[in-house]
């Protein structure tokens, strides 16, 4: 939202003849972003507080965690170029097993092998963690798809997170 406001103000400053157009477009998009924030907040609340843990290959979701009450654990730091050591894997594995985290997530911009290695190590400790889906972190989806827009990408991410971390009811699990 702050970026939209900054872009609007910069465009108005650089092209004052079209100020009303920039202001109207920004107002409309800010309203959509406000609706998106409310949607994400409502969806996030469906996940029990103790299950609000987002485990991914790298911790690109800290902003999301702070905004919506999720603890974020990444195998790597923010950089996807960081090497993952055995100690990093074992620490994350122990965390998942102790907290009984039901799902981890892969990211569209990061190879799956690191998360799959964590999944295998968790299984070796007698606990099963699923890969709950693919999240967009450093890139959006393809042009022309819902995930190819910022709003569509965020909706996809929260829907994927909620589906993987929300306990299945007895009626849901019996139909799977």
Arrangement of strands in the largest sheet: 1-2
E-strand count: 4
**Helix/strand/pairing category:** alpha/beta
Gap from first CA to last CA = 40 Å
Largest β sheet strand count, sense and barrel closure: 2 strands, parallel
Averaged pLDDT, please? Answer: 87
Q: What percentage of amino acids are in beta strands?
A: 5-15%
What is the radius of gyration? 19 Å
What fraction, in percent, of the residue positions are helical? Answer: 40-55%
Low-confidence stretches: 169-176
How would you describe what is shown here?
This protein has 176 residues and is an alpha/beta fold. It is 53% helix and 13% strand. It is built from seven helices and four strands, in the order ααβαβαβαβαα. It has helices at residues 2-14, 19-44, 62-68, 86-99, 113-124, 150-165, 170-174; strands spanning 53-58, 71-76, 103-107, 130-135. The strands form two sheets. It has a two-stranded parallel sheet with strand order 1-2. Strands 3-4 form a two-stranded parallel sheet. β1, α3 (62-68) and β2 form a beta-alpha-beta unit. α1 (2-14) runs antiparallel to α2, α2 packs parallel to α6 (150-165) and α4 (86-99) crosses α5 (113-124). The longest helix has 26 residues, at 19-44. It is elongated, with a radius of gyration of 19 Å. Residues 169-176 have low confidence and may be disordered.
């Amino acid at each position: 939202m702050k970026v939209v406001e900054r872009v609007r103000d910069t465009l108005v400053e650089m092209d004052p003849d079209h100020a009303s157009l920039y202001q109207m477009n920004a107002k409309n998009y800010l309203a959509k972003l406000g609706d998106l924030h409310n949607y994400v907040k409502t969806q996030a609340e469906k996940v029990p507080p103790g299950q609000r843990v987002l485990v991914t290959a790298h911790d690109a979701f800290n902003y999301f965690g702070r905004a919506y009450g999720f603890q974020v654990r990444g195998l790597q730091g923010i950089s996807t170029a960081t090497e993952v050591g055995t100690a990093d894997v074992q620490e994350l594995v122990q965390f998942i097993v102790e907290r009984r985290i039901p799902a981890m997530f892969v990211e569209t911009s990061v190879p799956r092998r690191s998360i799959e290695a964590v999944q295998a190590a968790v299984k070796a400790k007698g606990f099963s963690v699923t890969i709950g889906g693919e999240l967009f972190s450093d890139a959006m989806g393809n042009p022309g798809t819902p995930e190819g827009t910022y709003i569509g990408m965020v909706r996809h991410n929260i829907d994927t997170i909620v589906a993987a971390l929300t306990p299945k009811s007895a009626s849901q699990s019996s139909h799977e």
